[in-house]
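look at this one:
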Amino acid sequence: MSAPPIGIIGGGNFGWGLAHAVERAGREALLWSRRPQRAGTEHIELVSGPGALAAAELIFFAVPSPYVATIARELGVHLDGGHFLVHISRGVVGDDLLGLTQVLRSETPCRRVGALAGPLVADALITGAPSGGVVASRFPEVRAAVREALGGPALRLYSTDDVTGAEFASTAVGLFATAIGFAQGHGLGPAAQAMLATRAMAEAARIGVVLGGKHETFMGLAGFGDLLAAVAGDDRPELAIGRAIAENQPLEQIGSIGGTYFEGLESAGRIAAYTRRVKLHAPVITLCAAAFAREIPAEEAVAALMSREVGEE
């Protein structure tokens, strides 16, 4: 009996990247998108509606976080508890910073859910360049299914059961990668970028632990490893978006850079508001939120970052 196809929702670069990774792993992909942007291949079938994805056991959500609930609700009427749902979005929802696995569980009958995190970029998935990531799920069968569907000699996938930590780390790295691009746009060199990345991830870890995640998740591939790839210059869209913000390009134009939806602005504001409410010290995230929303001049944000009081390492 042949293996079931892999379902993918989203016709952007990441959706197609996942489809090509599935194809390289020797599996069939069913891709549903309202705007697929390109033609299918021998092993990537474009389907006309969410009902066709019920033939898959594992379904990936490669759509921005604001759209996950609506799409999950539309898809959920075709699914049952036998399906696995995994998202790759870098976003949180609501005032309490809920991860999208909670949204998938609330909007569908599926219980076995997970998230892909780490330094996965669409171009590497499309071309098969060496890459790696983390699959987070409390269900071993979900982690195994994702590794079987995507893994190969050039794509190493590690596992964790810390879904909360991996989801928030991924969201935070998306935000911080934008901040790194912003710093680059203002001429900050490697040492300043390293300082920013280190302080930012320390903040993310503190918040993540309060949310229920594990500190070590933020120090691993889902957190620091992912941010290290951004600092090294892996050409993810968030870097270009950060540089565009530094150049004062109009916010309404920035979201189209690299064919990606810019989740960093919404995430920054939401996380900054949460830290104020629960009285967590998060100066880097607060500055990012203000700078991205153009509430303070870019030069003032850079000066504030560099003028923070120095403490013990």
Remarks:
- The beta strands are 6-9, 29-32, 44-47, 58-61, 84-87, 113-117, 131-136, 155-160.
- The CA atoms of residues 237 and 258 lie 5 Å apart.
- Residues 6-161 form a domain with the Rossmann fold fold (CATH 3.40.50.720).
- The two ends are 57 Å apart (CA to CA).
